Every structure is written in C-alpha cells, then in structure tokens.
Amino acid sequence: MDFTTLTIDALKALAAVAGNYGIAIILLTVAVRLAMWPLNVSQQRSMRQMQALQPKLKAIQTRYKSDPQKMQTKMMEFYKEHNFNPMGGCMPLLIQMPIFILLYSALMSPQFIQIAGDTSFLGIKRLDTTLRASAGISNDGVMGVSKNDIFNAGKTARVYISGEVVENVKINKPAKALEIQGEIKPGEPIDFKISLDHLDLKFSQLDKIEKADISVTDVNTRETEKASFERQDGLLTASVPTVEVKQAFHWDILVLIAIFGLTMWLSQKFMMSVNKNNSKDPAQEAIQKSMGTFMPLMIIATFVIIPIPAGVLLYLVTSNILQIAQTVIVNKQMDLEDAKKQAKIDDEDLNNAKKIEPKE
Question: What is the percent of the chain where pLDDT is above 90?
Fold first, then answer.
C-alpha cells in the first residue's frame, strides 16, 4: 500500500472541497487533532497525575537510592497502586511522528509537485518549497538544474506501441528507474534513460514500443518537465535542454519557521502554566522552564538546516495552535473536576465531623 499516494489523495479530496491546498492541509491537521483528541486528553491527565505523584516518587527514590532494583520494584508497585502508566504521555508523540513523515514524503514527492507544488497560500509562495531551494518553472520546455541535482520519473507514462497510444502505463520504482547518461552540465542538454523493464507491460508489448512521454522531476528545484523518450534497443532515451539555476533564500519560509517556533513556545508555556500549581519540586520546574525555552530554539535551528516544505510547516503551526486551544479547554475541565472532588471531600468531612453540644 502506497501511503504517500493515499496522503496526496486525501489532500486532493480536501482541496476539492476547500478550493486550496493550503486550506486542505489545515483541514487535514484539524482532522488528525480531532482523531487524536482522546489520546491527547489522556496525555494531559497523565501529566497532571505525574505532577501530583512526584513528591511521593521522589521519596521512594531517596529511600531506596542505595538499592536500584528494589527502588524499581517499589516504583512499579506505586504506579500500579495509583493506576498510573508512566508511558501514557508518549503515545500521542509516537502516533504523530508517522503522520509527520507521511506528510513530508507527500509534499516532497513528484506527484504533489506536479499537481499542486506551485500553490500559494496567504504569504506562502509555494507549498512545496523549502528555506533554501530553487523553484523552477514547470512545463516550459527547459529544465533548470545545478550540477548535483537528483531526478525522479513520474509514476505513469504515455506509451506509443505500434502506432497505438496506451495511457497511464505504470513505471515500476520511478525513483530508481530514471538514470542520467554522462555528467550534468547546466546550460547543456541532459540525457536520460529508462530501461524498458521498468514499464509495467507484457513482453509482447515491450517489443513493439516506439516511444513514451514521461514526466521528469528535479527533486532539488521542484521543477517538472514532460520528456519524449525514444526507443533505442532495450532503453528509452531523452535529451532535455537545461539552464543553470542557483539556490535562493525564501524569506516566507523563514517567517513560517519563526511562527512555528513561537507557537511551540506558547504551547509549552501554556502547558507549564496549567501544571505549575501541581508541581512541588523547584528543580523540576526549572528543568521544565529551560526545556520550554530551548526546545523551540533547537527545533528552529534543525529546520533551518533540514529542508522542510512549507506545507509541512503549515501543518506543524496549525497543530501547535490547536494544541494550545486543547490544553486550555482540557485543563479547565480538569480544574472543574478537581473542584467538585474537593467540594465532595469537604462535605463528607463536614458530615462526619463530631458534633460538640454546648454546655448548659
């Protein structure tokens, strides 16, 4: 099952409703967050419970610090007694990681680049571009290239067999099917070749192939050109004109990265502010505060180095905003639950209190 294609199909369906792929990414983010709402609520409850149990856990660690094995046993007994799963808060993160990878793969794929790579949204010029990239002009007959670019073939081809045209012929392993003959010299035609074995056709059809029209995508520049491949023995070959391009710095992506960092910092700040009343460990509070400050900075630095498409950053920003809203809503709900529990305890204590009759 091709999960990248499924992700792109989901975006196409949402874009058909919303009218824009940027809005489609936002709608996909909302759908993912809603689907994960119960898990995220469980995570927040687990964090609050952890804060409440922290003093007792620290007491166990202090008491059995000379016997690590017994300490571990006592802590497991303590978790079981209080019905607490220390790994409960990690599940949402583990689930979100594959979603992030799928969206990254989808927005970097030739399929998305062909159908919506040049889509703009608000101040974002292209949803598929990264901080440092050269977004070429697709289907203008000239491929913008640099010396070390990587190329992929499209997933399907239009094949001419004995004068007949066969549409949507599947190309097996399109990322590996396309090969470059010789070196890439920007400004000079680049020669491509594809073995006939990569076409999903019968042997009788392969023998009669005359030529094929195949899309070629430059992974580095996001540019796609339709190339006409001619039959040469067991190969299909094409020569595509090129022009030299240089990497450009995209300020709109830098702004998006900065917004991501800000929303992540706000999300951490909200999370710490609603839990600080439950924390009785100053050292732990200091660690959480440092993590809340430095983690966004570390991730921003990582995103500056690693090429993250604008669409993925849009997903992350939207996810952070929804996380902030969820944190506020769920913690207000838990505050009400705690207040009701405390009121019930106070009422029971009052009812169970021993009455003292006044002396006559």
Answer: 11
Neighbours of 338 (CB within 10 A): 13
Q: Between the CA of residue 34 and those of 39, 254, 319, what are the distances in Å? A: 10, 28, 11
Q: How far is CA 94 from CA 5, 40, 244, 248, in A?
A: 22, 12, 42, 34
Q: What is the DSSP letter of 219?
A: T
Tokens 């070196």: give the residue.
183
221 pLDDT tier (thresholds 50, 70, 90): confident
**Residue 323 main-chain phi, psi, to 5 deg:** -65, -40
Tokens of 201: 């056709």
Which has the closest alpha carbon to 145: 186, 113, 204?
Answer: 186
CB atoms within 10 A of CB 312: 25
173: left (phi over 0), alpha (psi -120 to 50) or beta: left
In 3D space, the residue among 253, 209, 274, 242 whose CA is nearest the CA of residue 136 turns out to be 242
Q: Whole-angstrom Cα distance, residue 237 to residue 178?
A: 10
C-alpha torsion 124→130→131→136, nearest 10: -90
Instruction: Report the alpha-carbon distance of residue 261 to residue 350 in Å, rounded.
Output: 50
pLDDT at 276 over 60: no
